[in-house]
Amino acid sequence: MQPPLSQDALKAQVAQAALAYVRPDTILGVGTGSTVNKFIDALAASGIRLRGAVSSSDATTARLQAAGIAVLPADQVQALEWYIDGADEIDGQGCMIKGGGAALTREKIVADLAAKFLCIADASKRVQVLGTFPLPVEVIPMASANIIRRFARLGGQASVRLNPQGHPLVTDNGQHIVDVRGLRITAPLALEDEVSAWPGVVTVGIFAHHRASVCLLGAPHGVQTLRFD
Ligand SMILES: O=C(CO)[C@H](O)[C@H](O)COP(=O)(O)O
């Protein structure tokens, strides 16, 4: 009997499958994370030539450039057909929690440029209700204590994310991340709207307004395609 595929192998599988959505000579929005890294590697090895990519983080920019893919500034691109990114959780409507890699703000900005969002994830990310994964929120540091209190009133336990040195993690945008545990997100659109309106919130990691159009889910029996439009 074959040993079960590792999470890493499942990510590699969906990264490879995502190549079918890449049209040569177009501009692609590219997310952030270990699954996307595998996608960038697969794209580089595929020989598919892009006009360029719009990147969602400094880490992705570096990886794209190392792969010989031109990175175009987001403010010089009017529209994209596809944005390709991973997720920390995805529900049955294609709504997602994102931001485990602290790149949620630029991810949402690039996703907003795109007509369609292709989510690539291993099967462990598929959930019935969002919220087991701590919800990341990018915040302006002076607002974090108040935002933590606001989440407590909603029943969530929030804390500022620390870097390996024990200091608040600083995002590519110079801000902090608050991670919220204990929320059962049954109405993702409403919660995205509510938290987005709080003073000092830069971006909440609920992607309901920018939910996935298609999700390629890596499972032991192969890649499953979920369509949400
Ligand atoms: O939102 C993200 C980064 O901010 C990532 O898409 C998310 O954390 C999934 O990452 P991975 O592909 O490493 O599992």
UniProtKB/TrEMBL annotation:
Pathway per its UniProt entry is: Carbohydrate degradation; pentose phosphate pathway; D-ribose 5-phosphate from D-ribulose 5-phosphate (non-oxidative stage): step 1/1
Enzyme group, top EC level? isomerase
- Which GO cellular component terms are attached? cytosol
The UniProt record lists the EC number as 5.3.1.6
Reactions the enzyme catalyzes:
aldehydo-D-ribose 5-phosphate = D-ribulose 5-phosphate
Keywords attached to this Swiss-Prot or TrEMBL record, sorted alphabetically, are:
Isomerase
Catalytic residues at: 107 (proton acceptor)
GO MF entries: ribose-5-phosphate isomerase activity
InterPro entries given for it?
NagB/RpiA_transferase-like, Ribose5P_isomerase_typA_subgr, Ribose5P_isomerase_type_A
Q: Coiled-coil regions in this chain?
A: none
Name the residues that bind substrate: 32-35, 85-88, 98-101, 125
Any one of the GO BP annotations: D-ribose metabolic process
What does this chain do?
Catalyzes the reversible conversion of ribose-5-phosphate to ribulose 5-phosphate.
Give the protein family: Belongs to the ribose 5-phosphate isomerase family.
Q: Which PANTHER family match?
A: RIBOSE-5-PHOSPHATE ISOMERASE
Subunit: Homodimer.
What is the name of the protein in this document?
Answer: Ribose-5-phosphate isomerase A
Q: Which organism is it from?
A: Lampropedia cohaerens
Its gene name is: rpiA
